[in-house]
Amino acid sequence: MQVSMQQLIYLTAQVRDRELEAAESLCVSAAQLMHRAAQSCLAALERVHPAPGRVMILCGPGNNGGDGWVLARLAREHGYQVQVVAAEPKTELAKQAALAWEAEQGSVEPLAQLDRTHVAEYDIIVDAMLGTGLSRDLDEMYCRAVNILNDAKHYHKLWVLSIDCPTGLQSDRGVAIPVAVEADYTVTLVALKPGLLTAEAARYVGHLELAELGISASFRHLEQPFATIIERDEVARHLPPRSRSSHKGSHGHVVIIGGAPGMSGAVVLAGRAALRAGAGKVSVLTHPDSHAIVASAQPELMVSTSKAESQAELTEFISRASVVVLGPGLGQKSWGRKLSEWVLAADVPVVLDADGLNALAQQPSWAQRQAPLWLTPHPGEAARLLATDTHQLEQDRWLAVQQIAARYQAYILLKGAGSLCVDKAASSIRVCSRGTPALAVGGAGDVLSGIAGSLVAQGVVADEVLPCAAWLHAVAGEHAAIAGERGTLPSDLMEPLRKLVNP
Q: Where is the YjeF C-terminal domain (predicted)?
């Protein structure tokens, strides 16, 4: 299947090292490439805020600043009132672009003297300060500029466009070092970078547009992508139309284990999601105190109980399952811990979530098994799996997801804005660029684990289960939140989910 540049993600160094080589192979000079970058930014500007308008362009010392200098000339030619505020240009291309602006009597003010009051006089701010050229924490001048810009954006409703990457955002890891421009729109150049798609990216990047600058075909021949974005067509390919002669046994049997006292809702949500995602049969094994609640919540669920007294009895119960989803509402008391140990010792595929993950973090040796294992941690659970803290883990989510896969020899989905999926060999990384803050609510993860279990049961290939589940969960959340992000419930995802699994 042909994959477009809109799905391919490259490390910043890959783009920096190869973009000029790709351009030169097509007889495109570095100056022409800079002009194309500025043209792409102008096109974005005109789509969202057509002229006339007052535009302030903040230019840094390198080629990102050079893009800003060229944009200043183009924007003025197209009817905008333009003010450049700049650091001294250092690269040859930036110097040439600055001279061209000054030769046309363009106005320039020093970036070091950026003033809050002056910024507030403009409608649009273009951030062309550092882009992807950030290798260390911002110095005092740039921290000050970023803070002034962000304050003006919030208090005066300015629209902010960042070129290539918001200044201060680390373009591979997606973290602010220590602050970053909160852009409304980012035009990234040549290829997508990892830090624009996960971690804190959603806060800073705004709408993300890729400008390939006419060199993508050549660039693709020079570098292998670091990761890819999950797209609808891929998900649909793994959910083909059903045979007219199929029956419930054709679509797998999911067993969900969890629902300690007071947490019965978790297995209900996971069970409903497994059904709505298309599993033929769904059983729930829950705590005796939760049986009545779970059994009355969804008549299609087959509900049994366990006191966790017999490993042999549990092994027999799950032996006929296509997959076990272990963890929703499991709790961390002896009941849940025993079930975790026994399930992971059995020769059955397992999707592990919630307190199942916490049990595994305490006993990593339980992951040494022949049957496949899928883990779906949020950052806190992922940190426990790596024996670190959440802050440290979030400093490099890309590295963390690979480390978890390597340590546990499992397929991993690291949840969050820009969920990351990796196969158990840690060789293929996928990112889900869809989703909504409406999913930031208790129970959303239980829905995701139910979807994942359902896909396993239906025979989706092992390394595609979590990418497909992440996409279905994220997009179902988007649809459910159309009426408003606040107050959207995980149970609201069920009907959109049903539609999405029937492409």
A: 231-503
